[in-house]
Amino acid sequence: MAITLKLNGTTHEVEADPGTPLLWVIRDELKLTGTKFGCGVASCGACTVHLDGEPVRSCQTYIEDVEGSEITTIEQMEEDPIGKAVQQAWAELDVVQCGYCQSGQIMSAVGLLRENAKPSAAEIDEYMYGNACRCATYQRIRAGIQRAAEIMEA
């Protein structure tokens, strides 16, 4: 089945079977590998992308449901002012340990800051719940989000 989708500002036509997770189209068909496979059941957040500006788990978002939507991946975050602030904060605070989950963490953090430019620690924890980090850098992630909020405010 042919699907037309807009990914990172570019329109693509892809062939995919109905029920194919968006994650595999992004990684295998479009060769953008920043979005990671973690669990396959939308529990870890490693596969988070933005669908019309909202964070979604691409492992459980099906290709037939995204036609006509704007999809944004981690590869586009340098072009997004909030994404740029989050990435700057991540680098300043050395948030990353192994890095595997970080594209999903960043995509979720951008979604949070888009909704709430100055979240409290509790609001960050609540919003980011469900984004698993095997290295347990949750305190650094929280600090990174708070620092990104400061960068955006400046």
Give a structural overview.
Residues 1-77 form the 2Fe-2S ferredoxin-type domain. The protein is built from 5 helices and 5 strands. It has a 5-stranded mixed sheet with strand order 2-1-5-3-4, sandwiched between helices. With 154 residues, the chain is an alpha+beta fold. The termini are far apart. Helix 2 packs across helix 3 (102-115) and helix 2 (81-93) packs across helix 5. The chain folds into 2 domains: 2-75, Ubiquitin-like (UB roll) (Roll), CATH 3.10.20.30; 77-153, [2Fe-2S]-binding domain (DNA polymerase, domain 1), CATH 1.10.150.120. It has helices spanning 22-29, 81-93, 102-115, 121-128, 138-153; strands spanning 2-7, 10-15, 48-51, 54-57, 70-72.
The best one-word shape is globular
Report, as a whole number of angstroms, the end-to-end distance: 47 Å
Assigned CATH architecture of the largest domain: Orthogonal Bundle
User: How are the strands of the biggest sheet laid out side by side?
Assistant: 2-1-5-3-4
Radius of gyration: 15 Å
The main pleated sheet reads as: 5 strands, mixed
